[in-house]
Each structure stands twice: as structure tokens, then as C-alpha cells.
Amino acid sequence: MKRVLIAYRLKPEGLKALEGKYEVALPVDKSYFTREEVMELIPNYEVLVPNFSFYTDKEIMDRAVKLELISNYGVGFNNIDVDYATKKGIVVTNIPNSTREPTAEFAFALLLAAGRRIGYYDRKLRTDEGVSWGIYAEGGLPVYGKTLGIIGMGRIGQSLARRAVASGMEIIYHNRTPLEEAVEHLYNARYVAFEELLKTADYISLNAPYTTQTHHLIGEEQLNRMKPTAVFINTARGSIVDEKALAKALKEKTIWAAGLDVYENEPHILPELLQLDNVVLAPHAATKTIEDRINMSVEMAQNIIGFYEGTYSVSRVN
User: Fold this and answer.
1) What is the mean pLDDT of the chain?
2) Residue-level pLDDT at 52
3) Catalytic annotation present for 284
4) Among the options 105, 117, 284, 299, which is catalytic?
5) Are residues 80 and 106 in the same domain?
6) Are 195 and 201 contacting, i.e. CB atoms less than 8 angstroms apart?
């Protein structure tokens, strides 16, 4: 019987498919195993299940003498040294399906919250200072009729586009390669060069994966090319953005607002961002509903079963 080590405590509802077929170990009386605990346990396991905040590096893989599979509990996999796993013959999988809709949903929620200043109003109404009830004072930005620029028009980007189109937005996007015409037609989306997207979009959503090529893809130069009324949304990975440059752009009103769910040094948030009223902040919460997290567990477990038994398709990264 293959042994599965899950670094975080997950609800049993999502792990039922593993019962009786795999020997599963996970934290019982605490939220997660420490790195030291994983290092101690991993030599006895064929499967490791980390999540986005647990970095699986060369040191862990060298100690994991039986390891055959890293079934990541997340769609992004920059928490894993995939190149080294490949060298070691260890397969890495992710869960793109169960994370697609909740992440797109949250990105659109951040878009609305930042553009329409919902977080700002909520905070101010709870203070003695309050907020102006005047006709024009402290107004937000409209969404209907505006252009959404999506950087990374994959699964999540397309699900975001579907929501935006339903709300009366126009879609432009940038990918490494354009989508097929039939897919573009679904969202009335238009492929544009990266520079054109930065200059013309009213709202910009970052939905690209993190790689060495996308590190700080959005920095001071790119922010300076955006409209002064632009709203920037990031639900991808924090390191795709130069966080200090973004804070500076928000403070100096180079762009109008931002909505962020991810950060360069999670769970640490740059102090400058915490001091700004024109940014909506969330704690990497795009998939943070009980239902969605259980669905993620189900897909993660299916990757394990598919890898060993072939009864499910496997979302391989390498």
C-alpha cells in the first residue's frame, strides 16, 4: 500500500477516495506539519502533498528516498523545485480544475471592490471621520462599458472574462500565443500586444503563472504605462509584481487602485500597502471556501489515484 504524507490538515470529506487504498498521514491536532517534521517523516512515503506555502526543495527530495509523486494542493507550483523533481524522476501534479472558478470569482470580486471603492467605504463608515455623502465626493470608477485587460488568458483568465462580459465589459488579453478564434469569440476578446494592454485597459487582471520569465513582469516601467485611472488586480502570484513599485505607484496615484490576493513574501505584506486606502487586500483567499477547499482535495486525491491506477486523468506539471 502506497503511503501519502499530507503536509496540511485537510477535511476527510475530500480524501474519501484514498480510504482503504492508500495509507494517509496528515496533522490531526494542529494545522500543518513543520518543515522539520516533514523532513523526519518523508523517507517512508511515496507521495507528498504540499500546498502553495510549503516549499518542496532539493533537501526534502534528497531525503525522500521513496518519493514518486508530489501531488500539489494548488494550481501554482512555484512552491516546488520542479526541475530537480524531474531530475530525480519524481512526478509533480497540480489541480487546475477545482481552482478555476473560485479564483476567477475572487478576481472579479476584487475588481468590483477596488473600482467601486467598497473596502474604502466600509472602513471609513466605521470611523468617527466617516465618509462624504456628497454627490461627487469620494466616488469610485464604473465597471460597465470599461475594458478589462487580462494578462494570461488560460482557464482562470477565461472564467474571469466570462464574468466580465456578463457585466458589460470589453475584453482584451495578452498571452504567449493568441487563442483560437472560436475561443476568442466566446468572450468577444481581442488579442493585443503587452504594451497595448497596459496603455489601453481600464482594469488589468494578472492571471499568468509564475516562472523565471514572469518574475517582476509588472514593475515601475509597466505601471507607468498604465492609465492614471487604471485598476490592477493580482490573484496569480505575488512575485510576478514588483511590490515596492506597485506601492509607490498607488501612493503617487500613478494608477488609481489595486486589488491583491497574493504577495511577494507571504504571509508578510509590505507595510506600505497596509497604509494605503486605494488597495483592497486579501489573504490568498481566492479558493477559501469550505466547499472549494474540499473540491481541491478531491482533485488532488484523483491525481494520486490516476497516477497509480490510471482511473483518473492526471494533471502533470513535468
Assistant:
1) 96
2) 83
3) yes
4) 284
5) no
6) no
Active-site residue, 237 included: yes
Say whether both 221 and 184 belong to one domain: yes
Instruction: Tell me whether residue 299 is one of the annotated catalytic residues.
Output: no
Residue 314 lies in a domain: no
Residue 63 grid cell: 531525503
Residue found under cell 505607484: 249
What's the domain range around 165? Answer: 100-281
Residues with Cβ within 8 Å of residue 305, at least 6 apart in sequence: 17, 18, 21, 311, 312
pTM score, whole prediction: 0.94
| Annotated catalytic residue within 117, 237, 243, 299 | 237
**What single DSSP character describes residue 120?**
H
Which of 23, 266, 272, 293 is catalytic? The answer is 266
List, for residues 50-81, the tens digit of each pLDDT value.
988 899 999 999 999 999 999 999 998 989 99
Dist. CA 107–CA 259, nearest whole Å: 8
The grid coordinates listed for 278 are 486605494
d(CA 228, CA 273): 18
What nine digits make up the cell of 34? 513543520
Indicate if the pLDDT at residue 253 is higher than 90: yes
